[in-house]
Amino acid sequence: MGDVQAPAGLPAEMDAWVVARPGPMDTHPLESVRLPVPVPAPGELLVRVEVCAVCRTDLHLAEGDLPPRRPRTVPGHEAVGRVAALGPGTAGPPPGTRVGVAWLRSTCGECRHCRRGAENLCPSSTYTGWDADGGYAEYLTAPAAYVYPLPEEAGAAGLAPLLCAGIIGYRALLRADLPPGGRLGIYGFGASAHLTAQIAVAEGAAVHVMTRSAAARELAVELGAASVGGSTDSPPEPLDSAILFAPVGDLVPVALAALDRGGTLAVAGIHLTDIPALNYERHLFQERTLRSVTANTRADGRRFLELASVHRPRVTTTPYPFREADRALRDLAADRVEGAAVLIVGSGRGTV
C-alpha cells in the first residue's frame, strides 16, 4: 500500500485469508497471509472483525464457480465487528460501535434501477468479498452507508449469519410470493434456509423441507417444519410457494412440479448448475412462476433485521477458529456443517 499508514493506534498488519488459486477445495484455493491493515477512504469505516460467517457464495468464489473480479481477494461478507476508525469526512457511527458488513457494498444511486428502489439490480453494484476485500481478515473497510447497526446484547456469532443467509433468505421469501398462512416448500436446508423457515413459520406458514441431509431434516423438525423429506421427495400437499436454496439445477423441475396452480418458485443462489428441460404442461402451465433472486436491497436488510429482532430465530452455528477457514469451506462443500459455519476472528490469532 505504499506510504499509506494504518490509522493511529492500530497495528500495521493483520492476518487474513485470500483466494490464491480458485479450484476445488481439495486443491487448497485459500491461502493464509499477512496484509497491511486497510485504510478507510472518505465515506468509509474501518471495522475490526469479531466474527465472519461462511457463505456458500464464498465457496463458489474459492472453487471458481463465481469468476474472481480481482486477484487474491479476501472473501467473506457476513462480518460482525466494531468500528475502529472513520475515513476522512465520514459521517458514521463512532469508534466502538458494533456494525454488520454484508454482501451489498455499493450502488450508483443514479441508474433507473436505483431510482425505482431496485438497487440490487444496479449494473454498477459492488460486493464485499468479491469486488473488495471481505471479512476473512482482522480488519476490513466498508462504505458507512451500507453497514447495519447491530444490537450489543446479542452474541456476535449468532448475528453474523443474519447478514447474508438471513437477508438473502428473506429476499427469496418475498420473491416466492407466499400468501398469508400459505404452504412453503424449501429445497436444501443450510444456513439461509434454516433462518427463512423460522421466519415463515412465525408468520403462520406451513413449511415443508426437502433436503438430502438427515441432520438437516432433524433440525427442520426442531424448528417447526410441518414435514421433511429427501431432496427429490414430493411434499404431502401442493405448495403455494417454494424456495430452492441448494445450487442444484436438477431440483428446479422437481420443485415446479410440487407447486399448486399459481404457485411460485424462487431460486435463491448466486450460482446454479444447469436446469434440465422443462415440460410446459407439468412444470409451468396453470400460471406457475419461476423467479431468480439477485442480491438484496438495503431496505430488505433493514426489514429482515427488524423481523429477526421480533421473532428471534434460533441461529444454529458451527464455530471454527480463524486459522481453520479452509476447513470450514471444505466442510461446507461436503455438507458437514449444521446451520451456518462461523469463523471466530477475534484477535486474528486463531483463537475461538
Automatic annotation (TrEMBL):
Gene3D superfamilies given in the database record: Medium-chain alcohol dehydrogenases, catalytic domain, NAD(P)-binding Rossmann-like Domain
Name of the protein described by the UniProt record: Probable alcohol dehydrogenase AdhA
Pfam families attached to this UniProt entry: ADH_N (PF08240), ADH_zinc_N (PF00107)
Gene label: adh_2
Residues covered by the Alcohol dehydrogenase-like C-terminal domain: 194-308
Enzyme class: oxidoreductase
UniProt domain Alcohol dehydrogenase-like N-terminal: residue ranges: 42-152
Cofactor requirement: Zn(2+)
Documented EC number(s): 1.1.1.1
Family: Belongs to the zinc-containing alcohol dehydrogenase family.
Keyword terms, alphabetized: Metal-binding, NAD, Oxidoreductase, Zinc
SUPFAM superfamilies tied to this protein: GroES-like (SSF50129), NAD(P)-binding Rossmann-fold domains (SSF51735)
GO MF assignments: alcohol dehydrogenase (NAD+) activity; metal ion binding
Annotated Gene Ontology cellular component terms: cytoplasm
Originating organism: Planotetraspora silvatica
Catalytic activity: a primary alcohol + NAD(+) = an aldehyde + NADH + H(+); a secondary alcohol + NAD(+) = a ketone + NADH + H(+)
